[in-house]
Hints:
By secondary structure, the chain is α/β, with parallel strands linked by helices.
Amino acid sequence: MGIExxxxxxxxxxxxxxxxxxxxxxxxSFYDVEGIERxxxxxxxPFSKKMVEPDSYLIxxxxxxxxxxxxxxxxxxVASKETATALELLHGREFNGSTFEMEGSFLIGETEVSTFRxxxxxxxxxxxxxNECGVRILVTGDVKDYRExxxxxxxxxxxxxxxxxxxxxxxxDDLKNFLEVAGGGEVVFGAYAFGKAQRAVTTLRNSGFExxxxxSQKSLNLTKSLLEDGGELVGxxxxxxxxxxxxxxxxxxxxxxxxxxxxxxDYYYPAIHLSDHMDVRGLVAMVEHCxxxxxxxxxxxxxxxxxxxxxxxxxxxxxxxxxxxIHPTTPKRK
Length: 334
C-alpha cells in the first residue's frame, strides 16, 4: 500500500506548501463514511487564511516539536484534556480547541475518532479512525509503550530513534542506577520540564521513595497540575535531597552530583538512561504489533524516518514511506 495505493482507497498524505515554505509534518486527506472529503492536520501549524481550511488539527502531545503551541490558537485543534492543560501552562494562554478524555472517542463531522495512550507524556494520545472504504488509520505521535495500540491498515508514526545502523538508537532505561543515585544523598537530575520530569517523579514514587522532591518552578507547576500521585513536591528553596530541573539549569546548581536523564550522548553532565521514547527495536516491534499494510513515518526531521522506512521494507514487514518523500502541495477540495 504505497502512496498511489493509498490514494486508490481514498487516503492522500499531504505535505502542505504555504508562502513561507513547507508546513511541519503532514496532513491526511480522506473520504468519510458519507463520501465527504476531510482533511486532518497532524501535529502541524494552522493553514493560512488563503488556503483550504482543514476539518481538524490533531495534536498528539504538548512537546514543542509537535507544534501544539501554534495549533492551540485554532478552534479546529483537538487534544486530550491533559495535553491542553500542559499547553496552557507551558505557553501562558488559553487552549481554544476541543478536548477529550483519554481513551475516549469523539466525532469530527461523521468520522468517529478513537483515542489510545502512547505513554510518551502525560496526555499523549494516538488517534484511530476509518475512511469510507473501511481503511483503519492510526496516528500515534511519539510512543513510549505501544501495547495499548490497536491494529490498523495505515500506521502514521515516529522514527526518533529509527536508524537501525546507529548505535545511539539502541538503549534501555537504567532504572536501577537512577533509583540508586536518587537514594544516595544530595543529587540533582536534569529533565525536561514537561514529560521527563513527571516520568522521573512517577518512577521514584512507584519505587517507594517518599521524601520531598525539589523542582524548578515550571516543572513544579506542570507536575502538580498533571500528576495525581506526585507526593510532596517543593520548590528549590525548600529542603530536599533530590532535585529535578531542566538540563540547561544544571550548571547553575551547586551540588556535586549532577546527572541528565536522557539516552542522548551530547550533554556535558553524565547521563542516566531514562527515555520517553522507544529505541529502534521498540519501533519495529510496534509495527509488528499494529500489523499495518503501510507505515508512514512523519517525525522527526532528518534522515531517520527514511532509514526506518527502508528497514521495514527490507524486512518485508510492510510498505513504508517517509514523509520527506511526499512532494509538497497546496491542498484543494475536490
